[in-house]
Amino acid sequence: MIEVQRADPYRPREIELPPPLAEPVLDVRIDHSTAIGYEVKKGDYIQIIDVAGRQCSDFLAFDARALQEGRELGLDASTTRHIVGQAYAQPGLHGKFYNQDMDPLVSIVRDTVGRHDAFTPACNAKYYEDFGYPGHVNCTDNFNGQLKRYSVAARKSWPALNLFYNTMFDEHNMLVFDEPWSRPGDYVMMQAQQDLVCASSACPDDIDPSNGWVPTDIHLRVYPSERKFSMAITHRTNPDSVPKLTRETAFHERTSALTKQFTEYRNFWLPTHYDGYGPKAEYWACREKAAVMDLSTLRKFEVIGPDAEALLQYCMTRNIRKLSEGQVVYTAICNDTGGMIDDATVFRCSDTNFRVIPGEDYTGEWMRQVATERGLDRVWIKDSTDQLHNIAVQGPASRDILRDLIWTPPHQPDFDSVTWFRFTIGRIGDHQGTPVIVSRTGYSGELGYELFCHPSHANAVWDAVWEAGEPHGLTPLGLDALDMLRIESGLVFAGYDFNDQIDPFEAGIGFTVPLKTKEDDFSGRDSLLKRKENPQRRMVGLELAGNEPAGHGDTVHVGRFQVGVVTSATRSPVLRKNIALCRMMVEHAEVGAEVEIGKLDGQQKRIPATVVATPFYDPEKLKPRS
Fold first, then answer.
1. pLDDT tens per residue, range 435-472
2. Alpha helices, DSSP H only, in 185-278?
3. What's this model's pTM, rounded to 2 decimal places?
């Protein structure tokens, strides 16, 4: 092996290894350039930790019983991709790795990195020889040495799961790689689905970026099956933030009894759709009767103190000073260039108390930063996401379902007095019932309400709503149906319809920027004035010809040249058409303009489309106002 000086200023320093998550049955360091073989019982958990960061660890697993019978049935990436429909298994519904007989060997329980490789083999002698490094230590030879005692035949190349190895396919379908994403202490945890024989390595590759040029150690821990671990991936709000594991909402006990179809959404597990219903049935229930959905992933921040109004007046594009107690307003949140950081609803609870409900954790951090920069030292931004979880009851029957369920004290508006974008504070049933906050808001384009409660009361709130809704045909609703509803209603979605490069006018929510009536300075005001005076693009609707849908990111053309991009798209059940939201050059944004959506490379296939007004459904928003 080539000698490489290990004092690397670009390399993250090795952290002190955190203590085990439970009492391990195996706890061993795998020195760089070596591998180990080991046995794992069905149900046990395998945790592979990148000690110093940016270090690949190849992993093999075999069905132990099959090995005793003389058959080598190992982890097979091709079979796994065929079954899970992804490049590799990740925590969630499609989280298992399979062998050649399509039997699961391991399920991925936790992954704090999210970028691995299941296409290339473990490094081998020929790889190094072809680069001019004969005799270089390699994972394949290390595996052969460790697996010999398990009667596994030696190979010249092992098709492994290459944990932390950063590979991808570029725009030319070329397989390329770069330094791993992993940081010190990042890990992958798997649970054995059979009795297994496993092998793990600390890859010795020091001639390319696959290990950040300097191989380091991997740590292996195996925990007994009696210790249960939650399924999770991680997110960082900022590059320096401590990673947060995906968690369940307070309503998970109830929703998980109705479906196993969950996906990770902004650090929570939320249902995509419900078993026995499906997205179409859930959609029609919301349009015609009523549906209940878990929206607890929305972030909540209490902005409190004498300077609270002044802070929000600067941070929000809407005129917060005009907000009355008990009123809610939808707003954009922009940076100094006019790009959207987030969107949010703001609740005014009193003269000095506000509740901001955005989509991202970063919004709270940014508000604190702005308060410091502007010398607003009498305002406190408190994260209450874990103290307030919420469900939405949406649809024409939502008022009838909740009317007899919600009790309000005399000093609060009664339920029937809660008009569009207003809220009240009450209880379930009577004055001794479960406390809730009820707002007439939603993300469906229908008449609807949101109910906020403490997580400890979530089951009681869900049960009460479910029981009251049964006579009205109440149906649970997941993210798939919600996407259809919100696109039809022209409601924008972060990361799709806007980001910090897109201003509210380009995102189709210019109504949130009252430049004529809000004279106060606010974040991005000067840039937004210039952008409004010189618009380049605006959000439009598209109706597609035929039955083939568009997809997020599809290019939109007039002739050879691109004039727009699809931001969100769906098949509209009520319109019986494929529709899309599109950010279009203003020269081609007039209703009736004919364009084409580019598929494949944008030139080899086109779908005719026509620019139409948005929202597609209920353009005057009569239903939510009703």
1. 999 999 999 999 999 999 999 999 999 999 999 999 99
2. 252-255
3. 0.93
